[in-house]
Amino acid sequence: MKNKFYITTTLPYVNAEPHVGFALEIIQADVIARYRAIQGDEVFFNTGTDEHGLKIYQKALEEGKEPQKYCDEYAAKFDLLKTKLNLSYNNFIRTTDKHHIEACQEFWKRCEKNGDIYKKNYKAKYCVGCELEKTDSELVDGKCPIHPNREIEIIEEENYFFKFSKYQQPLLDFYDKNKDFVIPAHRQKEIYNFVKNGLQDFSISRLKTKMPWGVPVPGDSEHIMYVWFDALINYISCLGWPQNEKKFKEIWGTDKKPNAIQVAGKDNLRQQTAMWQAMLLSAKLPTSKQVFIHGFINLEGQKISKSLGITLPNPIELVDKYGIDAVRYYLLRGIPSSEDGDFSIERFEELYNADLANGLGNLVARVLALATKLKIKSQKSKVNNKEVLNLIEKTKKNYAKLIEEFEFNQALELVWKLISFCNIYIDKEKPWDNPEPKPIITNLLYCISEIADLIAPFLPETSEKIKEQLKESQTSWAGKSEILFPRLIN
């Protein structure tokens, strides 16, 4: 029986076109999902779109559209990423889905039954861009540092609140028992200190007269749910919860055996690793297994700001120009897996030429051309070179460890060291001048076959192309040395 494995991204707001920042997150999740599927797990991979909240409502009105129509148009743009980025997700949830709305209302009732929801009058400073309340200490010159061109709004009304403060000690106990709950470790330390410093109850509703776009609060027609409370529940509503408890338990897991891994950006640390986990405890549901936090992508050293007009490229435009696997490779190798990194077209093209065209592409072309000329087929069983076999085994072992630790760039670095070894090996051994070329070519074919397996979660299209060529090794590759990745000419 296959093990169940569940992975989810956060849900991007549909208030703008997709950009490579979210592409990074969903491609990282895709690598994990593909890797676990290759290991034999039954994978449930969830993503989708977050479609409620004030900034989406304002954006729809700005464009003169009904909010639902506006969301329909933008959700389609995000779902297009599945084809454009060759993603393997098998569920795409929208927070405007009827089932999701029903699940949110049931979740609310369970938290309310547990005594964790109450009503009070309050006044708060609010950043619509973040859809979060802000304390004075979080503001710079009275503005949100992430959205400096937006005015901070003052909310003064009667709202429902969630007793976040009640879960301070339960969360600390949970982090203590699960030292690797948040990856990387410094993010776990960050959220631990945040919780330890004291939690404030947070608002989970808005007055419908002021902001009608959201999930209705059960039993109170004057309020709609706060967008964060609603959006987080997608992680379980996508599994058919609460109607399909069997499916939910099998895929999400239990307290003793959790299955769910979440991938999120560092700006989501508080919501994913504290707010959501407290909500799950309140509803008496199992917590997630792990949360992997990735960093931001900056544009050639500049911090991204939609408000200031500094935006990242659209990943679809990059794919149309450079190809799917080239984009996947840059985001997975050129950007640190869990830290901030820069996006640069110059660096993109440099990595493309050096690693893809001259590295992998050139190796495959040279070896298969020689194999075709010498009529040698790929036969792993005939490889007996200890140096090659030991290198492959060492690479595979370390590679698996790095993927389990979400160190994607380092895992790819290992694979490219193997590619570099092969290119050096072929130049050193010179099979075209060697009276006994067959063992050399057989070793190289074996390495290429293993490389194709190793890059499968990262560059699935390229992996399949190599495997197909190995199956048809009598087909001439002569004159097609750049068939995988044509070299970019500047």
Key phrases:
490 residues, alpha/beta, Rossmann fold, Isoleucyl-tRNA Synthetase, Domain 1, 2 domains, six-stranded parallel β-sheet, four-stranded antiparallel β-sheet, 18 helices, 14% strand, elongated
What's the layout of helices and strands?
Layout: E1 4-9, H1 20-38, E2 42-49, H2 54-62, H3 67-79, H4 81-84, E3 91-94, H5 98-113, E4 117-127, E5 132-134, E6 153-162, H6 168-177, E7 182-183, H7 185-196, E8 202-203, E9 205-207, E10 223-225, H8 227-232, H9 234-237, H10 245-252, E11 260-265, H11 269-282, E12 290-294, E13 297-299, H12 315-322, H13 324-334, E14 341-343, H14 345-374, H15 386-404, H16 408-429, H17 438-454, H18 460-471
Parallel strand pairs: 1-2, 1-11, 2-3, 7-12, 11-12, 13-14
Antiparallel strand pairs: 4-5, 4-6, 6-8, 9-10
Describe this structure as you would to a colleague.
This protein has two domains: about 5-295, 3-Layer(aba) Sandwich (Rossmann fold), CATH 3.40.50; about 345-470, Isoleucyl-tRNA Synthetase, Domain 1 (Orthogonal Bundle), CATH 1.10.730.10. Helices cover about 50% and strands about 15% of the residues. The protein contains 18 helices and 14 strands. α1 links the parallel β1 and β2 (about 40-50). Residues about 475-480 have low confidence and may be disordered.
